[in-house]
Write the structure tokens for this entry.
Amino acid sequence: MAKFCTKCGRKLEEGEVCECTKEKKEKGLKEEKKEETIEKKEVTSLANDWLETYIAMTKGILEKPITTIKKYAKKENAILSWIILGINSFFTVLFLYLFVKETTSNVSGFPFNDFTYSGYSMDFETVLKIFLTIMVGYASMAGLLTFIGGILWKKEVNFNQIISVLAIPSTFTILTTLLSILLIYLSTKLMGIVLLISLILYLSNIYHGWMSTTTVDENKISYSYTGALVLTLFVVTVLMPKLLF
């Protein structure tokens, strides 16, 4: 019994596949490859955009911190902001590890072996818990400022925008943390000075950055910021250690 193509009606030999069907399959494969190429280009473009924005943030926070925060503190930058906070948290944990490692004799390679300092044991699991605690601290600060500004003061406040406010000054903190890691081996006194200056500038930049990006009454900013900061410190130093350690 003769066979015919269901697409174009052409008579087919036994086992033959019509050219129109082959062309359709080839066209479909080409379209799939084209879509994959477009997706790869989009991912690459996004990564390049993030890198350029990160470099601009870092340069800006050194030259014009508040102007830079006002420019980049947008909810659209939330993903990049979380990445920056993650990088900052990683280097903070690395600093803590290396600092303890340098001040104790019972040490072997990071991050898979245990070591003890003044009776305190730290292993890879502990490193992860500290990292998680720092990240929860950022989320708590942003959440508290969102709650205070949006619920208590009835103003339009965006959580993702506040995350950006916290992240942008962190680009400077990343640099000072790397410098502090180097100073562990050179001068712990100078290291302490660098960390103190970094902390003061970070908290100051967050305060002025939030003040310049929020519609909350400026007379309520200090109380709101201080309250959120105190509660965040409670979460990081009391609540999270009880839950995780």
Q: What stands out?
A: Residues 105-119 have pLDDT under 50 and may be disordered. The longest strand covers residues 115-117.
